[in-house]
Amino acid sequence: MGGISRIISVLLRASALACSVIVAGLLGSYVHHVHKAGFGAGSRILYALSLSGISIFFALLLLAPLKFSFWAFPLDFAFFIMWIVAFSLLADLSPRCTRPWFTFSWRFAWGSRKCGIWRAALAFSFLAAMLWLASCLLGLYRTFRDRKESRTDNTGVGRNKRFSRDSAAQPMAESHVQGQPGQTTVPANNVAV
C-alpha cells in the first residue's frame, strides 16, 4: 500500500499544480489586460492570483513522494480552506456571467463576453480546493497508518514494541556461586519484587 499511496500523492499534487497554473494563467491574463487599460483588477482577483502562485510553489516543493510530504497534511488542509475562500470570493463576483462586474470589467478586459473563461477559472479553483483536501486526507491516512504500524511487531500481533521480549521481567536465576542451593539472586538489570 505504501507504493500506491505515494503514486496517488504525486498524482494529487501534480493535479493541484496543474489547476493552480490554469487559474494563474486565466486570472493573470485578465489582470494584464485590465492593467494595460489603466484600471485595477480588484482584491478578490488578486487574492486568487496570489494564492495560485503560492500553491504552485508548495505543490512543486511537496511533489516528490517522500515521507515528509505526507506529514504536510495540515498545510494541505490550510490550502483547501484558502482555495474554498478564493472560489467563494470569485463566485460571488459573478456566478452566472450576468452581474455588472462581469459585464463591465471582465468583458472589457477580454474584448468580448468570454463567459467560458470565467467559468473555467471558477471550476479550476474549486477543483484545486478538492485536490488539496484529498491530499490532506491521504496524508492523514498515511501518517496515522505508519504510526500504528511502527507500534506493532513484525508478527502483526499488535504487541507494543515498548514491551518487547528484551524489556520484560526475566525469571530469577538460581545462584550457583554463593549461598545455598535453591536460593535465588536477582540479576543486576531487574528489580526484585
From TrEMBL:
Topology with respect to the bilayer: Multi-pass membrane protein
Keywords, in A-Z order: Membrane, Transmembrane, Transmembrane helix
Biased composition (Polar residues): 177-193
GO cellular component terms listed in the entry, alphabetical order: membrane
Keyword Nucleotidyltransferase set for record: no
Lineage top rank: taxon: Eukaryota
Chief location: membrane
Name of the protein in question: MARVEL domain-containing protein
Lineage: Eukaryota, Fungi, Dikarya, Ascomycota, Pezizomycotina
